[in-house]
Write a structure and sequence with these properties.
Keywords: Antibiotic resistance, ATP-binding, Kinase, Magnesium, Metal-binding, Nucleotide-binding, Transferase. Its EC number is 2.7.1.95. GO terms for molecular function: ATP binding; kanamycin kinase activity; metal ion binding. By secondary structure, the chain is of the alpha+beta class. The chain has 2 domains: 87 residues, 2-Layer Sandwich (Phosphorylase Kinase, domain 1); 168 residues, Aminoglycoside phosphotransferase (APH), C-terminal lobe (Aminoglycoside 3'-phosphotransferase, Chain: A, domain 2). It has 8 helices and 10 strands. The strands form 3 sheets. Strands 1-2-3-5-4 form a 5-stranded antiparallel sheet, covered by helices on one side. A 3-stranded antiparallel sheet has the order 6-8-9. The chain has a two-stranded antiparallel sheet with strand order 7-10. Helix 5 packs antiparallel against helix 8 and helix 6 packs antiparallel against helix 7.
Amino acid sequence: MTRHVLPASWDARLAGYEWHRDEAGESGGVIHRLTRDGAPSLYLKYGTGAVAEAVVDEAVRLRWLQGGVPVARPVAFVDEGDAAWLLTAAVAGRTGDAWLEHDPAMLPVIIAAFAGFLKRLHALPVDDCPFEAGAALRLAAARRRVAAGEVDVDDFDDDHLGWDAARMLAHTEALYDPDLHRRVVTHGDFSLGNLLMDEHGQVTGCLDVGRMGVADPYQDIAILCANLAEIDPAAERAFLAAIGVASPDRQRMAFHRCLDELF
């Protein structure tokens, strides 16, 4: 992204900053880290069309989460026509997967940090949260994505490789039981790459909160457990024990993992 696509009102605000393209993330948006001597670093996220909608979703959720759990502080936001720009303060720390790459022995610290954060997030007052992200709503969105050919079947987990999107959707719908679902405030994409922490395991912020909303807790549990199981089945068991889930509901776990494949 070049300077000329910035909102006009931001020209003075960002004068003198150096721009560094950040390739992390899978949202499809353009992300830059902005640095300037003597000033705090900033992150700028930009997108058009469907990505702009995702930027808007993230902006409003970041505002709501302030003071509830550690997240980046929104500095400025513009939603204009078919485009959206979100400027946030940089957050210190490394993601869980970055810490693992740096030092695999950090795994127990990472598990404890992710478990503590998730318990805090899921304890936020549901009645105060204006964002719905429940399974019925997500299933409806998944059906639209399948019909529009927007599902990346090449990104399916190993046990679903070779499946087409219609088969994945049918399998997911067969696992769905609305009577098994509860309501808590969820992150929506609670993976090892979406939580920042320091070397002591102190969580400094969570990333990519655009799917945050009220949903079943297994929406978050299933995604992180899938990440951890790829590393070591014992890591998954340790995380479940840390969040107080002695006997996980495997049907809910499978449903939410399969549902996530469609996004």
